[in-house]
Write a structure and sequence with these properties.
Largest sheet: 6 strands, mixed
Number of strands: 12
Distance between the termini: 36 Å
Strand content: 25-35%
Number of helices: 9
C-alpha cells in the first residue's frame, strides 16, 4: 500500500514556548487504521490537528500523497480543494463541530459547500441519516440532542462529504456503553470499506477491539514506538513507561493484592 500521509521531523510548540510535539516522523498507508495512543497532554490532539492542517508545525514537513502541505500550498485551488474534500475530522467534543439549526442542516452543509447539486446533497444526507440510524432526529434542533446523538450527527456531517481519510479524536469520549459499541463497529465497517482511519485514544480496550497499527506518544511528546496492536498491548514495560497502565493495590480482608490496572472500559475475562 502507498503512503497517503507522511510527517517528517515535525515539531510544534504553543506560543513558541510550550512543547507539544517533538521530532514526529510517521507515515499512514492508504486504507490502513492507525491509532495514536498516550495520556492526556501527550500531544495526540495536536498531532491530529497538524495532519488535518488546522495548525502548522514550527518545523518539519507534512505530505499528502507526496504533496507538501503548507498554508501557502493549500491556497492553490486544486490541492486545497482535494485535501479538504478527502480529509474528514471528527472532534472529541461534538459541540465544537455542530453549528447548524437542525440535524438535516448539519448533514447538508458539507456537500453544499463542495458544490454538490442540491438534489444529490439531499440524497446523500438522507442516506447517511438512514445508515447511522438517526432518521428520527432529522428535523430536531441540534441543541436538543443527547451526547450520543450529537456524536452520531457529527459523524454524519463528515460522512456526507465521503472523505477518503477519517481523523477521529478520542472516539469513545463522553459516550454511553451502547454508543461506544456502535462507534467501534462503525469505525471497523468504514475501514473495511476502504477508508483510511487515524484515531487517538488512551483507552487500551479500543486498541484491543480494532487491532490497528499503533503509535505510542510519550509524555515527552515524542513517538517512542510503533507496532501492531498485539505488540504494543503485550509490552507491559512500555505501557507502564507512558502511564497507560499502573500498579493497583486492593485488599480482601487481611490479604493485599497487587496487579496492573489499565485504561479499559470493558473488562476482559
Amino acid at each position: 500500500m502507498e503512503d497517503i500521509i507522511t510527517l517528517k521531523n515535525v515539531f510544534y510548540s504553543y506560543y513558541g514556548k510550550v512543547p507539544a510535539l517533538k521530532d514526529i516522523s510517521i507515515s499512514v498507508k492508504k486504507g490502513e487504521m492507525l491509532s495514536i495512543i498516550g495520556l492526556n497532554g501527550s500531544g495526540k490532539s495536536t498531532l491530529l490537528h497538524i495532519i488535518n492542517a488546522l495548525i502548522f508545525p514550527d518545523a518539519g514537513d507534512i505530505l499528502f500523497e507526496g504533496n507538501t502541505i503548507t498554508e501557502k500550498s493549500l491556497k492553490e485551488k486544486s490541492l486545497g480543494i482535494q485535501f479538504r474534500q478527502r480529509m474528514g475530522y471528527i472532534f472529541q467534543n461534538s459541540d465544537a463541530q455542530l453549528f447548524c439549526p437542525t440535524v438535516i442542516d448539519e448533514l447538508l452543509f458539507g456537500p453544499l459547500q463542495i458544490n454538490l447539486p442540491p438534489e444529490a446533497a439531499q440524497e446523500r444526507a438522507e442516506q447517511t441519516l438512514s445508515y447511522l440510524g438517526i432518521g428520527y432526529l432529522r428535523d430536531r434542533p441540534v441543541y436538543m440532542l443527547s451526547g450520543g446523538e450529537k456524536k452520531r450527527v457529527a459523524i454524519g456531517s463528515v460522512l456526507t462529504m465521503n472523505p477518503d481519510i477519517l481523523l477521529v479524536d478520542e472516539p469513545l469520549s463522553s459516550l454511553d456503553p451502547k454508543s461506544q459499541t456502535f462507534f467501534i463497529e462503525l469505525l471497523s465497517e468504514l475501514n473495511k470499506a476502504g477508508k483510511t482511519i487515524v484515531f487517538t485514544t488512551h483507552q487500551l480496550d479500543l486498541i484491543d477491539h480494532l487491532q490497528p497499527r499503533v503509535a505510542v506518544l510519550s509524555d515527552e511528546h515524542s513517538i517512542i514506538r510503533t507496532g501492531t496492536a498485539s505488540e504494543i498491548l503485550n509490552d507491559e514495560q512500555l505501557l507502564i513507561s507512558v502511564n497507560l497502565i499502573h500498579e493497583h493495590t486492593h485488599q480482601h480482608g487481611t490479604v493485599k493484592h497487587k496487579h496492573y490496572h489499565s485504561h479499559y472500559v470493558f473488562h476482559k475475562h
